[in-house]
Structures are given as C-alpha cells and as structure tokens.
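Structure tokens please, single chain.
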Amino acid sequence: MGCRPPALDPVATAQEHLRAVGRGYLGFARDEPGLFRAAFTVPADLDEAFGRSKAGPGGRTPFELLASALDELVAAGALPEERRPLSEVACWSAVHGLAMLVLEGPLRGLPRELGRVAAQRVIEMAVRGV
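Here you go.
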C-alpha cells in the first residue's frame, strides 16, 4: 500500500505529490550519499534518467515520478500548460543543487535540523515556482 495524502482538492493533492518527490530525492541523498553520488557520475544525458535500472519499487524512475507530479499539477489547473515544458529541469535543479551543497559543498557541515528546514524551503520554492 502506498503512502497517500488525505483526501484534498486536486491542486493540493498534486502539490503534495510534488513535495513528496522532492522529499524522497533529498532523503535518498542524505541517507545514501554514496549511491547518490554514484547515480550521477555516469549518465551523460537524460536518456539514463529513464533507464529501467533507476526504477524504484513502483516501476518508475525518479525523473518519471517528477514528470507525473508536474502533469498532475497541469491536470488540476495549478500549472498552466504553456509553463509545463522543462519544469522537471527547474524542480530537479533546485533539489539536486541543495543535495550537492549539503553533501560536498559549503553546506556539508549544516546541522541536521537546519538541513531539514532548508530542504522544506527549497521544495516549497519549487512547488510554488512552477
């Protein structure tokens, strides 16, 4: 059984799905830093983002989960169709940038609680920004 938010309006549900993708991405980077680094050392293009080897238990890759959450925002009327193209890049850049800053950059010594708050802020920025 999957983790689902309580029954909400379609916009709130779609936004929560996008937040969940961001939390999952940053949680994986935090909990599995070696695997996270390895995942980004080989691919030279987006073709690998869709590779079956990256699929999780639900059968979709992280990139596909992100695209699905963004499509859901369009369907709910929260993201105008004309702004949908490449929204994955904006959202992915935000969470990946934070992950790298915390893993290997100047934020690597950030206390865990501040890291949690930073993650929430970046995810919320992505949700509201798209």
